[in-house]
């Protein structure tokens, strides 16, 4: 799992490893609690898009350290910026690039997950946590508001009451509270966290890649469309999957009482 040697896509700030169809992207700026500098975001999006194009990779795990997934965007780099600086740097384009990834992206959060860190985790398809995880949008303490999707994705995930509470007061919530409010889907003790994340990622990696893609697209539609349009979009994808070899294999394997072997076609 994480004992693999670092991949060529690794940089000083991002360690990439792969095994069993799973690519691990580990944020690695320990001195700054993995604050998301433009160089780290560039390395992350470059790697994620390259891995997205590699047929041997079926799922990606975005992970930090035990102490911090990411404590936000790099405040030191933003502190003196003018609006024109912020616009011309256009770092939001890096965040938008990440949304082009089609393979399942799993955010595995331990420790601090704040500000841009929380926004990054929420931009992933799945969000799981260790029991020491802490989630928050503390930008209000800096005189600003979330700028990379926090007001939108947090509200959709946990509802208006808790989102307003967190965004207006800067209050941070525990992994258990995040689980209770639907921000994360699973919480494990820190001691077994990476093992469990690996197991979950490998389980997803064993599924049919086209079905994974259609499934994530369909779930995402639920946030963008009316129910009728969403149901229609789901149905088109469902029928479309009957054109894949993996659908034939999946159903044949069931009938023959054996595990399916999916090839991604
Ligand atoms: N940026 C830069 N450095 C950070 C940092 C951050 N977000 N968070 C922590 N660090 C650094 C600290 O400065 C410290 O560095 P040294 O002083 O040792 O050089 C080191 O990490 C360890 O931090 P602490 O000494 O503070 O450690 P503690 O355990 O005492 O406290 C903490 C941990 C996480 C509670 C604390 O560090 C903290 O409150 N950090 C800031 C959390 C925060 O406010 N995050 C939100 C930042 S604003 C956008 C894209 C993104 C964003 C907006 C727009 N567009 C592209 C439009 C996002 C904005 C944000 O995330």
Describe the structure using short key phrases.
265 residues; alpha/beta; 4-stranded mixed beta sheet; 12 helices; binds 4-(N,N-dimethylamino)cinnamoyl-COA
In short:
This protein is α/β, with parallel strands linked by helices and 265 residues long. It contains twelve helices and ten strands.
Secondary-structure topology with pairs:
Layout: E1 14-19, E2 22-27, H1 38-52, E3 59-63, E4 68-70, H2 75-78, H3 83-89, H4 92-98, E5 105-109, E6 112-114, H5 116-123, E7 126-130, E8 134-136, H6 150-158, H7 160-169, E9 173-174, H8 175-180, E10 186-188, H9 193-205, H10 209-221, H11 227-240, H12 245-255
Parallel strand pairs: 2-3, 3-5, 4-6, 5-7, 6-8, 7-10
Antiparallel strand pairs: 1-2, 8-9
Bound molecules: 4-(N,N-dimethylamino)cinnamoyl-COA.
Reading the helices and strands in chain order gives: EEHEEHHHEEHEEHHEHEHHHH
Residues in helix, %: 40-55%
Q: Estimate the strand proportion.
A: 15-25%
What small-molecule ligands were found? Answer: 4-(N,N-dimethylamino)cinnamoyl-COA
Number of continuous helical runs: 12
Global mean pLDDT: 95
Termini separation comes to 26 Å
Radius of gyration: 19 Å
Class from secondary-structure proportions: alpha/beta
Query: What form results from the Cα inertia axes?
Result: globular
> What strand order characterises the main sheet?
1-2-3-5-7-10
Major sheet: 6 strands, mixed
The residue ranges in which pLDDT falls below 50 over 5 or more consecutive positions are none
